[in-house]
Structures are given as C-alpha cells and as structure tokens.
Amino acid sequence: MKYRGIIFDLDGVICSTDEYHYLAWKALADRLGIPFDRERNNLLRGVSRMASLDIILEKSEKTYTDEEKAAFAEEKNTLYRQLLKRMSPADLSDDVKTTLDALRKTDLKLAIGSSSKNTPFILERIGLSHFFDAVADGNCITRSKPHPEVFLKAAEMIGLSPADCLVVEDAHAGVEAAAAGGFDCAAMGDARDDARANWHLERFSDLSKCLG
Ligand code: B16
Ligand code: MG
Fold this sequence. Notes:
By secondary structure, the chain is α/β, with parallel strands linked by helices.
C-alpha cells in the first residue's frame, strides 16, 4: 500500500455537520444584522470557531470587545450543539460507512484530524466514538488549519511520519495544512479541485483509488 495511515477531517468528510454550522452562524449573523450566506459560509470550513467569528464580523459595521465576541461564539455553539443532537448513526452515508468498514479490515491506521472542539460529541452521535485509532481535534491544538498542527498531532498519535499518511479534506484551509505538514492530501467536496491536493475525489469511496 502507498500509505500506512489515513487522517480524516470530520465535518464535510465523514459527516455533514457543515449545514448545522451554517444554520447556527446564520442565526447569529441575522440577530446582529450582518450579511451572511452559504458562499461566505464556505470560508469557514476547517477554520476554528473564533477565527470563523472574525470572518463573519468582517462584514459588521460595529466593532465588538473580546468579551462580546466570546459571548457570540458561545451563543453560536449552544445553538450548534442543539442541532447536533438531531444526529444519529443513520446520518452516516452508506458510501462513508461501507468504505470505513472496508478500511478497518486493512492494516492501515485510521485517525481523525478535525479543528472542531465538538469532535467527541459528534463521533458519539454518529456511533464512531471507538472506531478510530486516534482522534486529534480542536481540544488538543493551539493553531487551527491552515496550520498543520492537528494533522501532525494525529500522525504522532498513530506513530507514523507525515510521509506515510494520507489526509482527506473538504476545506481549502485543510488542504493547505496537509501540504504544509508534508502530507499527501485527497481533496473532496468544496476543496475537490484544489491544485495543492494529490488526489481529487468525486465521492468518499473513491479513496480506494488512492491506496494502490
Ligand atoms: P467547533 P473540521 C471544523 O471542523 C469546521 O469545518 C469549521 O467550520 C468549524 O468552525 C471548526 O471545525 C470548529 O468547530 O466550533 O465545533 O469547535 O472540518 O476541521 O472537521
Ligand atoms: Mg471539514
């Protein structure tokens, strides 16, 4: 096999929490009278919660204190977690489920590399709490994507060097992070055509084509 491990982004790769992020940020932006739409929401993919808020507030006519910003982020996260409660193992697509089950039968180490601090909650909701060999997420890093810290941490946790791992990402910030960390990257979804990626996936199951 070309790789010894795979590091998966979570939101937008394993599951579609991106719509819930959008709805929660949209509710906050509407309350504050700030223009926000799905196109702008794409800029938030893979980016940390506070960095996402800063991107939203770029369109605000007002400036806010750090305390106000912390409260806004908390407000969004409370609504987002309410929406996450709707998730269940049925939210895992057949394509993702079948592929993960097949990969689990190989010698490959499988890890999560997500910017999200809600990663443990999401994995629990979709029934994957105990599936991966390692989970690196927003709770164990200080620098969010496009910095490679979360992927480097995941590789360290599964005992592999970046050159032996493939990162799977749906965000341009994540593709950039993978390249910066010395990882090969398979891009899908919003970032599928990113020229910095080594592989361009139409769907999750196309991963099998990268493993040779
Ligand atoms: P939270 P990923 C990222 O997850 C999301 O793509 C991004 O939109 C979000 O702002 C970030 O997690 C932080 O999420 O507010 O739950 O800590 O794509 O890296 O799995
Ligand atoms: Mg993502």
